[in-house]
Write a structure and sequence with these properties.
This protein folds into three domains: 196 residues, Rossmann fold; 201 residues, Glycogen Phosphorylase B (Rossmann fold), CATH 3.40.50.2000; 41 residues, no CATH class. Helix content is 47%, strand content 13%. The protein contains 20 helices and 14 strands. The relative contact order is 0.16.
């Protein structure tokens, strides 16, 4: 492969969440002549300093990621960012030292935004970097709208045959129900922002965690009653990757029509469902844009916690403020009665989600990347695995092979934290599948009436896509 090609690197932190949108971008890039490598983040970063210099599209630029971003920069790559969580987040988190900070912005070439509101807040907070901000929209939106139904139609049909009619519950209690322990949800949120948070921001995070815990306890307590109200409908619990599975598995054992499932992308589950029930989940936006009814329950809260309500998920949801209201809304959804039209981008949602009528978001992003793409001097090849990495890999595999209760009981604290991080990392990296990536590319080519792209596996879970 010629080293005169432009190279685009797409690291995936949570594979099942980011994959399809990134492949949508990869398809457009490859059609324009780029060579694209897509892989789980940890695997790609371990070899990135040996790969041809190119553009790396990162999903976030938090202070904790500064060492990684600096490493990418020093390896000769140009860095761009499109925040995967930018459409459903607190405005406060878009400020200094949470989602962005100046150390990272000094070495990032472009920051892409889902919509007007995210870009506006960024420019107010970082006026000196405003010229590097681009309102592009997100390729994830294009995938949801244009390609998801065709890509996942067989999987959605299979889920309907297996589970019948069901309501999907994408749990989002990673703070209150964290896989590393109840106290770690808040600590990890603070850790991603490094150590220089303002007192106001720390107070905000503590309040957010308190709200998440109250909601989690109420959702758990109410779930049996809600499930019992629709005995002929199944309910599918799908937890966030950062969540512990224990409590959901215990509830599954007690409730006949409740099922705990964590596998693959959420998209086919949305398409197969009657609707979704959530608390402040990004999946609410995805479901709405794919035409599915969305429900949420805002349980009673102390007045001082009201400011931790997120406007974006509420804008696409039928909102219940009591258990009785939720059961009524659920019954309407099951019977096909809708009061909110799915798929429409208006009001609050229009402030956060940009629809470009002149070009796709992928085209908008690549237009900017073209301006910063470096000329590669290194060739594309598989780098050898160092002895240290081989040893660490074997140790990690051994730890992951142990039962969770074993390392929780017998490992010292530092080792327990390492084991928990490995478990979380494994959950985030699961779902990288050559056949699925190939299928997404082929469906996009088919629907766009374009030529089939080339694709091969450079090494395990590292896919190369080109024209």
């Amino acid at each position: 492969m010629s080293n005169s090609s432009k190279f685009l690197y797409l690291p995936l932190e949570i594979v099942v969440r980011e994959h399809d949108g990134k492949v949508t971008l990869a398809h457009e890039a490859a059609m324009q002549g780029w060579v694209v490598l897509i892989a789980p983040k940890a695997i790609l970063y371990a070899m990135i300093d040996t790969l041809p210099q190119g553009v790396v599209m990162i999903k976030s630029a938090t202070p904790l990621e500064h060492a990684q971003i600096k490493m990418l920069h020093e390896s000769g790559h140009k860095i761009c960012s499109l925040d995967e969580e930018g459409v459903v987040t607190f405005k406060e988190f878009l400020g200094d030292n949470v989602r962005f900070n100046r150390d990272n912005l000094n070495i990032i070439e472009r920051v892409f935004f889902w919509g007007d509101e995210q870009k506006r807040i960024f420019e107010e907070t970082f006026p000196e970097f405003a010229q590097y901000g681009v309102k592009s929209g997100s390729p994830r939106l294009e995938f949801w709208r244009d390609f998801a139904h065709e890509v996942y139609k067989d999987q959605a049909d299979a889920l309907r045959r297996k589970y019948g009619r069901f309501i999907l519950i994408p749990s989002s209690f990673g703070i209150a129900n964290n896989v590393l322990g109840a106290h770690m949800g808040l600590e990890l949120t603070k850790k991603h922002s490094a150590s220089n948070l303002s007192e106001d921001m720390v107070e905000f995070m503590v309040g957010q965690a308190e709200q998440n815990l109250i909601a989690f306890k109420e959702y758990i307590d109410f779930l049996p009653e809600m499930v019992a109200s629709q005995p002929d409908i199944n309910f599918i619990i799908r937890p966030h990757p950062s969540e512990s599975h224990d409590i959901w598995k215990k509830m599954e054992e007690k409730l006949d029509n409740l099922h705990f499932v964590y596998e693959g992308a959420v998209t086919p589950w949305i398409l197969a469902s009657e609707g979704i029930y959530h608390f402040k989940s990004t999946t609410s936006i995805e479901a709405h844009l794919m035409g599915r009814p969305v429900m949420t329950y805002m349980p009673p809260m102390p007045h001082y916690l009201k400011k931790y309500t997120l406007e974006q998920p509420l804008a696409v949801s039928e909102i219940a403020n009591s258990r009785e209201e939720l059961i009524e809304i659920l019954d309407n959804v099951v019977r096909g009665k809708k009061t909110k039209e799915p798929g429409v981008i208006d009001g609050v949602l229009k402030m956060w989600v940009y629809e470009n009528t002149e070009c796709t978001s992928a085209e908008s992003i690549l237009k900017e990347m073209d301006l910063v793409a470096p000329l590669p001097t290194r060739l594309l090849a598989v780098p050898p695995l160092s002895l240290k990495r081989k040893i660490n890999k074997k140790i990690d595999e051994l730890v992951l092979s142990l039962n969770e209760t074993v390392w929780a009981k017998y490992f010292p604290k530092r080792a327990r934290n390492r084991a928990g991080s490995l478990l979380y990392g494994k959950a985030k990296a699961s779902g990288m599948n050559f056949k699925h990536t190939r299928n997404v590319l082929d469906v996009i080519s088919q629907l766009k009436k374009m030529k089939t792209l080339n694709m091969y596996e450079l090494k395990e879970q590292v896919f190369v896509i080109s024209k």
